Give the backbone structure.
Amino acid sequence: MPLKQTIKYESDCDKEFAGWISGQTGGENLRHCIQCGICSATCPLSLYMDYTPRRLINMAREGFKKEVLSSFTIWLCSSCYACREECPKSIKVTDIMYLLKRRAIEEGVYPRRFPIPVLAREFGRMIFMFGRVQETLLVTDLFLRTSWFRFLNMTGLGLNLMRTGRLSVLPDRIKGRRQLRQVMAALDLQESKEAVK
Ligand code: SF4
Ligand code: SF4
């Protein structure tokens, strides 16, 4: 993916960002990175990322918040944990990727029309609403928010899947949705409290 190179001054960086990551579960060792590059060498997807894992970790700790949160890298990470296993400083790179994804969704700064963050956000929203993922709604929503063209292309396949009973049309809901929402809200609150510690 093409990289836009711009000069960045220290005053443009977010000094709090590294502190926020280090204060989260999984992000504790961020500042211990020695930039050895083993994570990038191990990562099966670094070739496709706009910033390699090594570079992303460095940018995160230097406060390049905007670039880090809007990068494709965090969404291309497949959570294979190879980098985390090999890191000589026990930096939980995969967990940091998750922290960054969550923050990017919260701040709405993920790459526009890129399917993975849209899918992650809609998946969470659907669980919150119904307690289950409604595949037809999820896929329709995903295509409408990312590519109309692909939506039109996939309509035939979708209809066939519905006809053969592989995609359900009716929403599936669990009992006790209110309790589930309370649990999810409590977890969110807990995470927010940990973030401001
Ligand atoms: S392997 Fe660990 S120490 Fe080395 S660059 Fe990656 S995160 Fe930093
Ligand atoms: S967990 Fe993500 S960043 Fe780490 S090696 Fe796997 S794909 Fe790459």
Q: What stands out?
A: The radius of gyration is 19 Å. The pocket of iron/sulfur cluster (ligand 1) is lined by residues 33-39, 53-54, 57, 87-89, 91, 93 (CB under 6 Å). The chain has eleven helices and no strands.
